[in-house]
Structures are given as structure tokens and as C-alpha cells.
Amino acid sequence: ATSEREPLMRVVVVLLLAANLLFFTWSRGWLDAVTGLPAEAGREPQRLAAQQHPERIQPLAASAVAALTQTSCLELGPLDGDAALAAAQAALKGVGTAEIQVRSTELPGVWVVATIKLSDPDFRARKEATYKQLRLPFEPLDGLPAEQPAFV
Questions:
Q1: Within a 10 A sphere around the Cβ of 87, how many other Cβ atoms?
Q2: Cα 101 to the chain's mean position, in Å?
Q3: Taking a C-beta distance cutoff of 8 angstroms, is the pair 60, 69 a contact?
Q4: In this structure, are residues 131 and 113 in contact, taking their beta carbons and an 8 Å threshold?
Q5: Which end of the chain is flanked by fewer CB atoms within 10 Å, N or C?
Q6: What is the mean pLDDT of residues 43-72?
Q7: How far is Cα 117 from Cα 126, in angstroms, rounded to an integer?
Q8: Are 77 and 91 in contact (CB under 8 A)?
Q9: Are 12 and 21 in contact (CB under 8 A)?
Q10: Nearest in space to 28 (alpha carbons), one of 15, 12, 40, 44
Q11: Helical ranges in 28-120 per DSSP H
């Protein structure tokens, strides 16, 4: 039984040596032009060489970091009247009044049309072509699996 395994083991050893030799030549960059897969792809030395003025990068001082952590933005809504005033007063308790900037914005309404279930790929492709021709933006609608796929 051992004499039958010896030729097989020799083949395995030769294949492993060939694989190691191939990997070694690729990792040295000798096969970059042949394979199209550069060995240096993970290190990106060309990006490091393309940096413009890397000496200008300075870490923030501790005082600047502290100032950034104290600045915040708070968005409340959608609330009307007294509810908005009460929520704003509760949220801004302890903040100096000189630092408060109140901005009010109203967003316009949005219309959404959901299509039927598009189980047939050809039907789905025709729907996509129709929407593109009409210049209607659309996106797949995530929902119940029984209703997939549909567009919005």
C-alpha cells in the first residue's frame, strides 16, 4: 500500500513546490505585466507618492477638540405651536442663550407611486425602460417577500 502512495506523494510535493514558486515570483512583482494583478495593490505606493503637501497636516490642539465637542446641532420636529416651544425649552436647558440659533424649515410634500409585483424579468425590464424614457426616478421597494420586486 505504501508503494502505491509514493508516486502520488511525489506529485503532491512537486505541485506544492510549483505553487510556492509561482506565488514567490508574483509577490516579487515579476508577473505584474503578465497577470494584470499587481503584487503591490494593497500598499498603494502610487497614492502616497501623489500626496500634495502632506507636511501641512497637523493634529488638532486639545482646546480645538474641546470646542468641537461642545458644539452640537439639535433638530426637533415635526412639532407645532406650544409642543414645539416646550420641546425646544426642555432640550436647550443649560445652554447659553447667546449660542442658540433657531432655524425653521418646511419640506415640500413628496408623491410616491408603488407599482404592482414584478415577478417576470421581461415585464420588469419593460417597466424600467418605460420609467427611464419618461425620466421618472425609481428604486426597488423593500417590503413583504410576497410583493417583491416592485418599484417606487
A1: 14
A2: 32
A3: no
A4: no
A5: N
A6: 80
A7: 14
A8: no
A9: no
A10: 40
A11: 32-35, 45-49, 62-70, 81-91
